[in-house]
Amino acid sequence: MATGGRRQDRLRWSKLYTFSCIRPQVSLDDEQSHSLQGPGYSRVVHCNQPKLHQKKPLRYPTNYISTTKYNIISFIPKAIFEQFRRVANLYFLLAAILSLTPVTPFSAVSMIAPLAFVVGLSMAKEALEDWRRFMQDVKVNSHKVSVHKGEGHFGYKHWQKLRVGDIVKVEKDQFFPADLLLLSSSYEDGICYVETMNLDGETNLKVKRSLEVTLFLDDDLVFKNLTAIIRCEDPNPNLYTFVGNFEYKQQVCALDPSQILLRDSKLRNTTYVYGVVIFTGHDSKVMQNATRSPSKRSKIEKTMDKIIYILFTFLLLISLFSSVGYAAKTKFGMPHWWYLQPNKTSYIYNASKPALSGFYHLVTALILYGYLIPISLYVSIEVVKVLQVKFINHDVHMCDEEIGKPAQARTSNLNEELGQVATILSDKTGTLTCNQMDFLRCSIAGVSYGVGSSEVEIAAAKHFASEASGTSDQHISSTQDIWEDTWGTFGSSEIELVDGKSFWVKNPRKTTIKGFSFEDDRLMHGNWVKDPNVGAILLFFQILALCHTAIPESNEKTGGFTYEAESPDEATFLVAASEFGFEFSKRTQSSVFVRERYSSFGNTIEREFKVLNLLEFNSRRKRMSIIVREESGQIILLCKGADSIILDRLSKKGRMFETDTIKHLNEYAEAGLRTLALAFRLLEESEYSAWNAEFLRAKTSMGIDREAELERVSDIIEQDLILVGATAVEDKLQKGVPQCIDKLAQAGLKIWVLTGDKMETAINIGFACSLLRQGMKQICLYLESHNMSSRDSMITSQAAKDNILMQINDASQLIKLEKDPNAAFALIIDGKTLTYCLEDDLKNPFLSLAVDCASVICCRVSPKQKALVTRLVKEGTGKTTLAIGDGANDVGMIQEADIGVGISGVEGMQAVMASDFSISQFRFLERLLLVHGHWCYKRIAQMICYFFYKNIAFGLTIFYFEAYTGFSGQSVYDDWYMLLFNVILTSLPVISLGVFEQDVSSEICLQFPALYQQGPRNLFFDWYRILGWMGNGIYSSIIVYFLNIHIFYNQAFRADGQTADMVAVGTAMFTCIIWTVNLQIALTMSHFTWIQHLFVWGSVATWYIFLVAYGMSFWHLISGNSYHMLLEALGPAPIYWAATLLVTLACNIPYLAHISFQRALNPLDHHVIQEIKYYKKDVEDQHMWKRERSRARQKTKIGLTARVDAKIRQLREKLQKKMSSLSSQTQS
Fold first, then answer.
1. Binding site annotation covers 923?
2. Catalytic residue status for 720
3. Which residues does Mg(2+) bind (predicted)?
4. Which residues pair with 626 in a beta bridge?
5. Radius of gyration, CA atoms only, the chain
6. What confidence tens digit (pLDDT) does each residue in 730-739 have?
7. E strand segments, 734-873
8. CA dist., res. 143 & res. 165, Å (int)
9. Which pLDDT value is given to residue 1228?
10. How confident is residue 347, by pLDDT bands cut at 50, 70 and 90?
């Protein structure tokens, strides 16, 4: 491989950055190196000698990773265990074993074959799903990376073949294949840029740096004879910590996280880096944060197990009753039954040992009454779920047209869980956002610029305008309509508010400039030079162009520049500055160059600004400053930051525009825009020199107080600022995210955001996607950062807990005392505080507070914390949780949640590989839950209830007949009838119910989101409904059996006067069962297709066809007494057809009456909608349709609708004030 040259012309960032890139000192002894003694610090890595780690005691795992549930060895035992976790399968296994004994009423094959088929089919499905995971693992493990093969030569290897100690060369935009120690990079000072979005969700680039002693390792050939030793911590899940020493040529250097490149992070803005592999495969930190693929079961399936327990208990009771009855008959009746030859005894028939005979009969009864427990239930559910998955996978409305990725259900076990979700836990970066900002407005010198409107403003004004025009009756109750046509034909409008001010709303133009949607001719095209405040405007643009850490890269296609910035905000400000005529064009070690297009000279000139100091942004400072020297020699400090921070640092003379700027900031915030305040300060040479000397002392100091000292010194110079203005950018979310969150909120779902981002970023995103809004009361749980000694850590930890508990109690009390019904609370917490809140003594109060809040945002959380929060919500609330994310940092929570959804975006596939369902964009979650989730839940719930109904109705008739015949163990039905009952005659209708049933269409599901609450409230699978269906089955069994017995018992049904024998009665009863259960499922269905008609009525027809065929002459050896049963015996008898009609109607009329009374007196939501649609009232009576749509959304305090409602309340208040003012003026 060709060697790469180092980029000598690029910057030495270690001289530019304030709080980072300060290299640790190299020690020649162990005094300053880390102490690595004791457990947890035993890892030894021999650099460039990977073979030493393939044998004991340094045998480390390979870089192969696996996310599958099974392997070749474990599949059979684990899959069998999974199948026999199901109670019904355990029962049928017992029955299959007993069928090998002489006491069985059926053949062994008839019991073993169905069980083997059901279990085998389920295991095959599990194998197929795990095979797909395996193939995705193969894809990841097969990625290639350049590895040192010896003698200074590098070649490509698969990731899975990497070993600890390997030297690897990673190139720009490649992912790191394992956890590496950075040795050198293409920059001369050994720094590189890393994107860690897959790990912590942050899109800004991290700066990593190599040790000073390894800087010379900048070429392939120098690794020919390299040997060094790394002693470090053992594998652990902590992403942000690392402790170790690097031993090279008698030098010992301390290692920290700034030298570590973690697996699944990406190299950016750096041509190449060299690194040595420290942790491989499942030892890597990202995999340490992952958990094994769990075996998830839906709540319906768990409830189904309880039903099986109930039915098994019932089966045991009636079997005991039957065995006692049989023992009594054997003891007291058998001696008198001479025709049974009682003297010829056996272990089954022995009058002298009735208890033993009763015990054997108990085994017979347990098998005979087994039809109470449907063996085909599980396999039918498996078939239905697989078909449901096909519909999900092929839903064109969930396919991303741009990248062509459809939704994918990676498991079919959890389809119905999609319809019961109560809480969604979402990642932020890459899930909610697309990491794009748009510069929309600004305030300069107290004047607001920018005429474009945010989505929230457009929607609120559209709704308000509809009220003002007198159409409020039709539109006041349907704020959700706003989002269906936000960018439609509404156009521009003007609404006059208080004090004659006009509120302009204008549809945004289609901009071709990414990140710049600003529209205002006063600032564009150089018109700002004519403005009275030209000096302030010039400073504003200079702050945008200078106060940053970005790097410009020439764009050959456009002739301009693209910017690699640490945050999307910085890149947006640079694009805006360029559009305003101030193009950041070059950065050197000591200068920044800006091209000014609208200078006083009339042509484009390039100005140089000497960079003296750069004071970085961090979450504590909430501001960033740059000190530059202009070409005139003037030293100036330019500062941007949070408005609360900047306004507190203004001088008395610098508050000239403060009042107007604060007003504009509030307006921007109400519009959902992210704001920053901009200020400056002119510095005297002597003042700067004195401050800089102190600053350099703090910067070069080493110790635990260095950061605090730097912040103190920086704070000194960032005082007495002069306010220039403020910026307002719109945070570009993924397409449809606000609307999706709005619909989910209307459906009654709670949404938590768990992100690795800073608190400020997360809050801004919360505002952008309407999880937060202006006027919402924010409850922030946080701890002040304090340095502490180890001996005080226990005391400090307890004090921290007490402090957090006090904050939680105060916040809970605040919520309880709130009187305003429209008041909304948001809980915001950082990772450090969350660590304490997840401990046993605080987690319950924390969860109680979080549940009371409208939205919850957890910031700076690690992957492990995401999983722990998910577990807390899942176990603490007892409700279904869904976790959604797109990166490796989300794998833990995706696997911990009841349902895990992975975003199959552009950054890696780790989340998708660990998920249960994958979608390409967050907005598809709306359809996945509200449509497919709603349908799947109701289909599975109705299907299971019906299954138990039909088996109870059928199975109890066997018990009644056995009791009627002296507990003889005789079945009234032919064996073939019983075999076909579940397999053919009733299986297809119930499968069609589970696959095609729709209470309402997909459009209605989305228009009436409150319908979704039928799932979380479990309306269709609660015990009231389950027991109701069981009761219906018992009622049907009584009617079928006793009516048939009464009709056929002692009257002739043939022309020659013959009475019915057992086979005739059994066939007549079975006919009634087939008609009853199939008519019942027809009454249950709301939506018919030709397939359902075919399956339901085809099943009935199949029964008659089978009877004819079964009675044919070539079947006579099998059919026995059923020979020509339909054609000769039952068919010509009118009583047979009359009994069938009478029994079928008697069984189904009560259910028909029940659903009729329910629809008339206590209709459910979907009943009302069905009736409206049936009578076409949605077309003929729009007013009623709008009213019903308004009622069909849960009252929510988050989402676009809630935000617009708040905006409308605000506008109404302003109008009321204006009307009151005008009224008082008129009266005076």
1. no
2. no
3. 427, 429, 886, 890
4. 614, 638
5. 37
6. 877 778 888 8
7. 750-754, 777-781, 825-830, 855-859
8. 19
9. 59
10. low
